[in-house]
Records
---
Amino acid sequence: MSKECDIVKDLSVNYVDNNLRDNSKTFIEEHLEKCTECRKYVEEMTIDLQKDNSFKEKDEDINILKKINKKIKSKKILIIILSVLLGLIVLYSSLVFINYYIMSQNPNMEVFLEENISIDDKEKIEYKIKNTKDIEYNFVSKEDALNKLKENFGENERFLNGFNNQNNPLPESYVITGSPESIEDLEISFGKMEGIKKVQCNLYQNPYTLFNIKLITNFTKIKNNLF
């Protein structure tokens, strides 16, 4: 093997990749015309490099496909998550307004009395309630209100142990249920009467608030029954 052959073999990679200047390229081509061994060497190298380039292209294609598949999977997961969240929101809103519709068909009202209400004012309120059609009512004493609150507190009832009939802060009230028309009529009348501290009617409350209160109340009852 001549020195010229060594030079050609050293430059063969750049020659195959077409990275040589014209004079170097001419030198190699002239040598290949007269040297069988170098010509065979360059041909084999050309085949090997073509195979390597082919494998590289395939690897690049595979990597591109992997990236595309990864993006598609990520989008699918995101779409599934958003669909589930949207479904839950729709379900929650549907339950809220179904609950509100049911409550609006048979609304209830709670009339809280002033602490020092006079007997005369209390009798007027009760007279108005008794003479209103299509309703049912129940008087809730301060003691009954405290007992109900303790029941709702469940296992946390101990926080209310300091309260008794002497220092009970809860007011007396009337709980009234009936037709929407009767409840609305009573609310207007109570707005003009003395001795009433507050009137709370579910007809005019936020549907989401009503549903959440009902949800929490039912959850507390189930928890108390289980434990």
---
Amino acid sequence: MAISTARDERAMRPVFGAAPARRSELARAWRRFRRYKPGLAGGTIVLLLIFMAIFAPVVAPYSPTEKVGRRATPPSTEFWLGLDEIGRDVLSRLIYGSRVALIVGIGAMAIHGHKSQSAGTKALAEFKDGSLQVLVAARSLGILAGRLIKRSRASLML
């Protein structure tokens, strides 16, 4: 009876059947994302909006504050989305407005991420005592209750 060693087992493995290299987590996530069509469409739209916001002076046909024609003109080949009540191009105003919307969205995400991270860190730091966890949970419930009350008041006013 022979005793097998790790070297013998490696020698018995065929070369052509070697284990494939493992993909990184990022590569696997990107592969899943490419296969999910709604996510890919949404990502494309977001990238298009970011591109438009960055290059607004180049992409927009007119200045957003410039009066370019008659008031309240419907869409045409010259003004794709028409003109507003003052005579400004709606498409140009939409493109420049995407800048503000993008900045507000990124700012809100940054503030929320910072607040939730700091709250989570504090809760973990006080894990043994537990008193801070109770305060964080009470604050979250208070915010939720405030939102529900505001909604119910708004529906009562209608």
